[in-house]
Amino acid sequence: NIVVVGSINMDFVCYIRRFPQPGETVQSYRTETKSGGKGANQAVAAALSGGKVSLVGAVGNDSYSRDIVFGLRNYRVDTDRIMQKKSDIGTAFIAVEESGQNNIVISEGANGCLTVEDLKDLPELFGPSSVLLVQNEIPWACTRAALQLAKDHGVRTYFNPAPALGIEEDVFPLVDVMILNESEAESITSIRLSEELSDVKQAASRIIALGVREVIITLGEKGSFYMNDQEESIFTPAFSVHAVDTTAAGDTFIGSLIAARQQGTPIREALRQASAASALAVSRAGAQESIPTAEEVAEFLSR
Ligand code: ADP
To answer: Which reactions appear under catalytic activity for this entry (predicted)?
Structure first.
């Protein structure tokens, strides 16, 4: 099974003509509430790709929280280890201007109430072929503890260091596979990524040198670059699609890739499937509701 320890949010998305000035009120022409958070999105992506997924995280004691947990169950994500905190659900307030630019205010809510103590039973979820997936939207001590527990139990670890803030490099040796986008790779390696693939290679090498066994840098509409500690590398081009909404592109890529690897798919083919899944996700509006199923990905690849 795939054990995800990560964030669960309610996203409030307001579509507006232009951002308000300080002190100004503007009218939104459409507002949507959506279940989100990188932990939840990646769990849903892995489940839709055929993975058996448990999500460990925290919600609040409000009605949004109940709706979100119900929604996750509908995606066949095991929610038994989602804790209820005396707090509000984590939220993201997203204002999207007509130009497509966005402004986001995050409130960690229940995600910030997760403690290392809450994770002490995590190993009960680990079986012989389990993997762990973490991001960086819960307290850093919890992310670190989850990686350490997995390592102690011989469980393969995947780390998406997003957002790339407050990452301590001494956890890198606990990471089997790091998956990150261009801006996260820039902030972790301090290498400015130009259009040249040589910069991306250099950034990947630097991450490998810090103790990670495999790294994948996603490059938006350009594709992705994989490297392992044997210096093998694979560039996978993105599929050309009409991009409608790139929200959850990375989350879909990650969930799909891990589910494919779990099912024994070789890395080159797993990267191709992840690329197809995320291309489908960007060709549709929304976050979780834009994530395709394994059947949709297979159909897309057979076209
Ligand atoms: P994030 O969403 O984390 O910023 P990226 O933008 O790098 O991540 O996207 C992740 C993956 O999604 C890419 O490696 C690519 O395969 C796919 N993807 C992203 N944008 C597009 C696009 N416009 N067209 C096709 N595929 C895309």
So the answer is: D-ribose + ATP = D-ribose 5-phosphate + ADP + H(+)
Ligand 1: which residue has its CA nearest to atom 25?
279
ipTM: 0.98
> Kind and range of the H or E element at 241?
none
Chain segment 232-288, per-residue pLDDT in tens:
999 999 999 998 888 889 999 999 999 999 999 999 999 999 999 999 999 988 788
Paired strand residues for 125: none
| Annotation marks residue 170 as catalytic | no
pTM of the model: 0.95
| 210 C-beta neighbours (distance < 10 Å), count | 17
CA of 226 from ligand 1 middle (Å) equals: 14
For residue 247, give Cα distances in angstroms to 48, 130, 218, 273, 294: 17, 28, 14, 18, 19
Report how far Cα 181 is from the mean position of its chain's Cα atoms: 10
| Annotation: CATH topology of 2-8+37-89+109-302 | UDP-N-acetylmuramoyl-L-alanine:D-glutamate ligase (3.40.1190)
| Encoded amino acid at 58, one letter | A
CA dihedral 152, 146, 277, 227 (to 10 degrees): -50
Give, using CA atoms, the residue closest to atom 24 of ligand 1.
221
Residue ranges of domains in the chain:
2-8+37-89+109-302
Residue 225 Cα to ligand 1 midpoint, Å, equals 12
Residues with CB under 6 A from ligand 1: 181, 218-221, 223-224, 238-239, 241, 243, 246, 249-250, 253, 275, 278-279, 282
The CA distances from residue 162 to 23, 128, 143, 297, in Å, are 31, 28, 12, 25
